[in-house]
């Protein structure tokens, strides 16, 4: 069936900011959909609030709206654009729920807009837990014994029938949000209350527990002519009870019999037909009882999901692209498979002759108060994927990709002392993020697989594979380098052992193993991902490394540039860096070079087979990068776009004579090494807050006293403010040194005087070595001391004087000259009393690059890449001119709702997972839109609770009359209340939590407060007031923890939502 002729314009709803449970896999799917539909001649309109993704680049769609994904905002865009159809299946749960609300509110009918990709009935049948249950029964498929609840009393009734343990899953949520496993009535009530609050339909499904059953997923695609294919089967290494996003998963499934696989395949097709998904990709989850083989259906997603990205990268089959084309009328047999160059149609079921392993990445170290136990609510922030000829190779390569200092199945032992048997037993029974390493240590301690299986219910097949790896390690530890002959080397390399791991086992270094391996002529070969197990030739250069067999890489002799990606998504290093890597690859191609991408993240656009000329899906380690350089021999390598991941390889690569493009590696060291940076500051006559470096705890305490408190402390060489803290006295500093970090000669800690009430500013610079241009000046809204990744910021600055801006520009240019920057550089300044202080310099891409690029209408990453290749800024006609009279505000998006025991206070350590952008004709509108995009509801009037630290009271002289004028009554704690009374304003005093009932938290829980202004300092005060911030978050009451944030709220309240403007990036930058 050819393309539909009745629609010519399509609105795609994106997924919004990166959050836990909904990460950049939807930017990948949305970007694919935009590209595919645009190529087919449709006018593509995109709405997405996320500036960090390549998806919101003006080139991707015909009309790009960076606006809140909220039905009222989208309704305004529909009114303006009059699209014929909406494609809601590419933006995760956010897009699906928004589309359903638009339908419910009558917007689609009013403007004659149809839903494509999934219809209302299909979405309801799949997402509404009760309807799904009834639908499965109608086709004789079993689901877990369950009941539906719309209130706490319903929930208690269902629980009585089902018993404990039971699993609670809210309807229409993502990543298991609000769900969990309850073993007792207290846990049950807590989870149900949270779940009812988070489900948009106030509906819970309460299931019998299937903990310990094996979990599988099927990625299925169906078209309107009922052609169905399985793209890939996925097996969870972890059994039921852990969210699939938090499980290690393997594709294709390894422990299914052919009969079980066929049953699951047939059931998947049956489910899609019955639910009514007839134009796109879906994901169906099954559980199998290992005791008797009984199969039940857990759930299905009638849209492109997290697993779709994994299945696409695992097989090479572009699920999102195909789903987008099916939604406009094509059938699978009409679409060509790109990977085989059109030799096979898309209806040809992919078949793979390798194993893929995905391992999730967690960030519990950022949230020490959060429970690190894994349950049915997703907690991981990213993932890595690896391919190998067998499970062991694929698994060990994935471990090396994790960016956690792993070189394989590292032991958790400390000085050869293993964790105790009690600790291992506990970790195996109640899983956490390191369970696989505890399993390995249990095997090292001689535990048998029966015992490990009884505690974990991980299939024997996987346990035996891990057992064999430990055995090989033990054999290696008895050998020397000369015992490693060619046959043995090939055997252990085929099982995925890294050079670094082998070196560790036999007591030598990685370089020696590499040289020995080369001498023995043991080199990796590269195989192509071709969707058809080598049945047809492929012209697509999508590759992974292995050992033994024929190399299929066939490198060309063209001019080429290798771009090293940013690895797994994590807090502190998100998709902003992937955006930069994609632009580097595109820039190289535009300048006549072949571009080569190396990355290991399945969620991102950079690992799409059609972004670069050649793609290597490999761990970003020295071994793998040098292997690729050996075979490809690129003219240059770009390392300054992937965050800290490729930068860590700078020294190794330059020692090996690799041509690193852009700024010299020494400049990176000059800006990151504290003593060398000091020399640079003195040479250029710059001002810096008082600071010191300490190599032991005693020295740190002495130097801390000398600088004077408060002080910001942190380890050297970090990204995302890891283990960074603001300490107010010697006692707090002493605690930090004992609990947070290890201090030594090789790991010094840095102490900086904290500039109270300073304004922080980010300046991004682009340079070709001769011409230096300021890309943008971003004024932070929260004062200095809040991590720059967590602070909202405004472009252009909204309250800086011309004198200060001029001074910062001049200093930035001087620094760029001194470091001879070629490419990008980011500088952080602090402004106090009109004086400019330099905080830090990073001669690389920063997380602000995509945001500035969207505002100025020109990609800084692409401009910088071309400058590195040798094209001057003048030849590129680069201009960083902002559109007239507009403000762009970036707001960080926090994951606090996933970790209810964490205090939602901002500080010097980065905690945000994503960001949104607000655009408006004034700062207030832009800031208000950014808050809405970040899903923070700002009530327009009511009661404001104010409690501020002594140093912030001076700000109340201006703030109090403004908030009263905005329509708020004030309640305050005693100290703040007295200050406000003395100013002559009405205020009602309220108890602190420590002062007796009723107190402020009671008022928050009773919904008597509409806005919270709470600033505090000192660890005891922070601890005492944590429940205020937690209660505000839980009850969706807007809360700010800085006074600069409070003044921004005043500006936001002045902007009337009815009058908000909605313009495309294309209109703004024309």
Describe the structure.
The structure is a single chain. With 1070 residues, the protein is α/β, with parallel strands linked by helices. Helix content is 36%, strand content 19%. It is built from 37 helices and 38 strands. It has a seven-stranded antiparallel β-sheet, with helices on both faces. It has a seven-stranded antiparallel β-sheet with strand order 31-30-27-28-29-32-33, sandwiched between helices. The mean pLDDT is 91.
Strand order across the largest sheet: 14-13-10-11-12-15-16
Return the structural class: alpha/beta
The average pLDDT score comes to: 91
C-alpha Rg (nearest Å): 28 Å
Short note summarizing the structure:
By secondary structure, this protein is of the alpha/beta class.
Task: Label this structure with key terms.
1070 residues, alpha/beta, seven-stranded antiparallel beta sheet, 38 strands
Reconstruct the topology from this structure.
Blueprint: E1 9-13, H1 25-39, E2 43-47, E3 63-65, H2 71-81, E4 85-87, H3 92-104, H4 107-110, E5 114-115, H5 120-127, H6 129-138, E6 146-149, H7 152-162, E7 166-170, E8 180-182, H8 185-198, E9 204-208, E10 214-222, E11 228-236, E12 249-251, H9 258-275, E13 280-288, E14 295-301, H10 306-315, H11 319-326, E15 355-361, E16 382-388, H12 391-400, H13 421-429, H14 435-444, H15 449-456, H16 460-476, H17 486-494, H18 499-506, H19 510-519, E17 525-528, E18 541-546, E19 560-564, H20 575-590, E20 594-599, E21 614-617, H21 622-632, E22 636-638, H22 644-647, H23 650-655, H24 665-672, H25 674-683, E23 691-694, H26 697-707, E24 711-715, E25 725-727, H27 730-739, E26 749-753, E27 759-768, E28 772-780, E29 793-795, H28 802-819, E30 822-832, E31 835-842, H29 849-856, H30 860-869, E32 887-893, E33 914-920, H31 923-933, E34 942-947, H32 956-965, E35 968-972, H33 974-983, E36 988-989, H34 1000-1005, E37 1011-1014, H35 1019-1034, E38 1038-1040, H36 1043-1054, H37 1065-1068
Parallel strand pairs: 1-2, 1-4, 2-3, 4-5, 18-21, 19-20, 19-22, 20-21, 34-35, 34-37, 35-36, 37-38
Antiparallel strand pairs: 6-9, 7-8, 7-9, 10-11, 10-13, 11-12, 12-15, 13-14, 15-16, 17-18, 23-26, 24-25, 24-26, 27-28, 27-30, 28-29, 29-32, 30-31, 32-33
């Amino acid at each position: 069936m050819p393309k539909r002729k009745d629609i010519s314009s399509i609105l795609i709803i994106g997924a919004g900011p990166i959050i836990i449970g909904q990460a950049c896999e939807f930017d990948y799917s949305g970007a694919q959909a935009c590209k595919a539909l645009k190529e087919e001649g449709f006018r593509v309109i995109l709405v997405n609030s996320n500036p960090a993704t390549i998806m919101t680049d003006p080139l991707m769609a015909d009309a790009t709206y960076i606006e809140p994904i909220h039905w009222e905002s989208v309704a305004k865009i529909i009114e303006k654009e009059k699209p014929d159809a909406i494609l809601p299946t590419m933006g995760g749960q956010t897009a699906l729920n928004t589309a359903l609300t638009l339908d419910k509110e009558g917007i689609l009918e009013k403007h004659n807009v149809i839903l494509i990709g999934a219809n209302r009935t299909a979405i309801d049948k799949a997402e509404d837990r009760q309807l799904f249950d009834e639908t499965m029964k109608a086709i004789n498929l079993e689901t877990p014994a369950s009941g539906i609840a719309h209130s706490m009393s319903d929930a208690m009734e269902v629980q009585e029938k089902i018993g404990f343990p039971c699993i609670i899953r809210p309807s229409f949520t993502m990543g298991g949000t609000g769900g969990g496993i309850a073993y007792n009535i207290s846990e049950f009530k807590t989870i149900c209350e949270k779940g009812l609050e988070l489900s948009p339909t106030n509906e819970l499904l309460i299931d019998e527990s299937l903990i310990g059953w094996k979990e599988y997923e099927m990625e299925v695609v169906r078209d309107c002519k009922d052609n169905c294919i399985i793209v890939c089967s996925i097996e969870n290494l972890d059994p039921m009870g852990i969210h699939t996003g938090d499980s290690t998963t393997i594709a294709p499934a390894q422990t299914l019999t052919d009969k079980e696989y066929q049953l699951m395949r047939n059931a998947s097709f049956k489910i899609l037909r019955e639910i009514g998904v007839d134009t796109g990709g879906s994901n169906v989850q099954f559980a199998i009882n290992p005791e008797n083989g009984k199969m039940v259906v857990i759930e299905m997603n009638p849209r492109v999901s997290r697993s779709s990205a994994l299945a696409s990268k695992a097989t090479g089959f572009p699920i999102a692209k195909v789903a987008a084309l099916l939604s406009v009328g094509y059938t699978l047999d009409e679409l060509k498979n790109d990977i085989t160059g059109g030799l096979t149609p898309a209806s040809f079921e992919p078949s793979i002759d390798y194993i893929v392993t995905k391992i999730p990445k967690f960030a519990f170290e950022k949230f020490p108060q959060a429970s690190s136990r894994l349950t049915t609510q997703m907690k991981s922030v990213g993932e890595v994927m690896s391919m190998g000829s067998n499970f062991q190779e694929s698994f060990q390569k994935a471990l090396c990709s994790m960016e956690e200092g792993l070189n394989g199945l590292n032991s958790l032992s400390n000085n050869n002392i293993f964790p105790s048997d009690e600790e291992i037993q506990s970790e195996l029974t109640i899983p956490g993020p390191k369970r696989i390493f505890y399993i390995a240590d249990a095997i090292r301690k001689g535990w048998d697989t029966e015992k490990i299986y009884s505690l974990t219910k991980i299939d024997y097949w996987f346990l035996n594979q891990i057992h064999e790896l430990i055995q090989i390690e033990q054999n290696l530890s008895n050998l020397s380098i000369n015992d490693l002959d060619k046959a043995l080397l090939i055997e252990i390399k085929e099982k995925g052992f890294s050079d670094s791991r082998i070196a560790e086992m036999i007591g030598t270094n990685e370089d020696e193993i590499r040289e020995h391996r080369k001498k023995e002529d043991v080199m990796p070969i590269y195989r192509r991902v071709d969707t058809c197990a080598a049945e047809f030739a492929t012209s697509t250069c999508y590759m992974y490394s292995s050992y033994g067999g024929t190399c299929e890489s066939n490198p060309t002799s063209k001019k080429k540039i290798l771009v090293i990606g940013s690895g797994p998504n994590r807090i502190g290093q998100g998709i902003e860096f992937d955006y930069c890597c994609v632009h580097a690859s595109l820039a190289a191609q535009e300048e006549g070079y072949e571009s080569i991408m190396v990355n290991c993240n399945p969620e991102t656009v950079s690992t799409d087979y059609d972004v670069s000329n050649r793609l290597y899906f490999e761990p970003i380690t020295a071994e793998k990068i040098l292997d690729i350089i050996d075979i490809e021999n690129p003219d240059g390598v770009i390392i300054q776009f992937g965050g800290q991941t490729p930068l860590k390889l700078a020294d190794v690569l330059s020692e090996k004579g690799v041509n690193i493009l852009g700024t010299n590696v020494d400049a990176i060291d000059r800006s990151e090494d504290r003593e060398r940076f000091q020399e640079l500051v003195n040479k250029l006559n710059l001002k810096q807050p008082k600071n010191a470096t300490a190599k032991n705890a005693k020295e740190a305490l002495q130097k801390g006293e000398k600088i004077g408190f408060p002080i910001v402390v942190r380890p050297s060489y970090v990204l995302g403010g890891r283990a960074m803290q603001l300490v107010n006295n010697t006692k707090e500093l002493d605690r930090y040194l004992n609990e947070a970090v290890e201090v030594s000669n090789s790991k010094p800690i840095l102490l900086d005087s904290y500039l109270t009430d300073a304004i922080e500013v980010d300046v991004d610079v682009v340079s070709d070595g001769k011409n230096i241009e300021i890309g943008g000046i971003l004024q932070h809204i929260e004062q200095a001391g809040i991590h720059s990744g967590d602070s909202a910021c405004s472009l252009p600055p909204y309250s800086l004087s011309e004198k200060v801006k001029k001074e910062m520009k001049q200093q930035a240019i001087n620094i760029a000259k001194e470091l001879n920057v070629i490419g990008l550089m980011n500088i952080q300044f602090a402004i106090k009393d009109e004086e400019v202080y330099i905080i830090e310099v990073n001669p690389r891409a920063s997380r602000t690059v995509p945001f500035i690029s969207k505002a100025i209408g020109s990609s800084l990453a692409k401009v910088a890449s071309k400058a590195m290749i040798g094209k001057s800024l003048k030849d590129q006609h680069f201009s960083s001119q902002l559109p007239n009279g507009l403000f762009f505000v970036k707001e960080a998006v926090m994951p606090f709702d996933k970790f209810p025991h964490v205090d939602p206070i901002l500080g010097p350590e980065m905690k945000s997972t994503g960001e949104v952008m607000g655009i408006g004709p004034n700062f207030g509108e832009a800031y208000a839109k950014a808050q809405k995009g970040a899903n923070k509801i700002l009530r327009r009037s009511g009661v404001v609770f104010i409690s501020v630290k002594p140093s912030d009271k001076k700000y109340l002289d201006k703030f109090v009359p403004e908030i009263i004028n905005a329509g708020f009554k004030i309640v305050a704690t005693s100290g703040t209340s007295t200050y406000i009374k003395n100013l002559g304003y009405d205020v009602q005093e309220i108890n602190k939590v420590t002062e007796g009932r009723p107190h402020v938290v009671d008022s928050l829980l009773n919904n008597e407060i509409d806005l919270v202004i709470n600033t505090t300092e000192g660890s005891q005060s922070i601890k005492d007031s944590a429940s205020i911030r937690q209660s505000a978050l839980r009850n969706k009451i807007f809360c700010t923890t800085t006074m600069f944030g409070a003044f921004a709220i005043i500006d936001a309240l002045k902007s009337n939502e009815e009058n908000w403007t909605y313009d495309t990036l294309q209109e703004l930058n024309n």
